[in-house]
UniProtKB/TrEMBL annotation:
InterPro entries: Beta-barrel_TonB, Beta-barrel_TonB_sf. Pfam families: TonB_dep_Rec_b-barrel. PANTHER family: PTHR47234, SECRETIN_TONB SHORT N-TERMINAL DOMAIN-CONTAINING PROTEIN. Residues 21-116 form the TonB-dependent receptor-like beta-barrel domain. The keyword Protein biosynthesis does not apply. Keywords: Cell outer membrane, Membrane. It is found in: Cell outer membrane. This is TonB-dependent receptor-like beta-barrel domain-containing protein.
Amino acid sequence: DRGDGGVLSQVRTLPVDHPIARYLGAQDLKAETSRNASLGLSWQPSSAWSTTLDAYAIRVKHRITLSQRISRDGLAAELKSKFGESGIDGVNFFTNALDTRTNGADLVTQWTGPALGGALRLG
């Protein structure tokens, strides 16, 4: 990983139960839970033309993401003093940082017809 100013730095991704991660605020992970709903409609007014509409809503609670890199002046010396770990300039760990909602719809229409002795499909 590159730190500020183009200088290489040692960043470790730690499990949440690692003593350094706990020291920096890591907590036990909760299981992600999700709910979703969807609805689909289709319409075919002729054999050449069809349309579909699919709508959806997805909710995820306790989404697991990677934390931002935790780094500060003197962190390497602090971690060496407290944990005997040397050369660590930054740390990140997994966390339940987000609840997300995704809503959307997909509309697809397609027309098929003759063209130049073959078939043309537009969609």
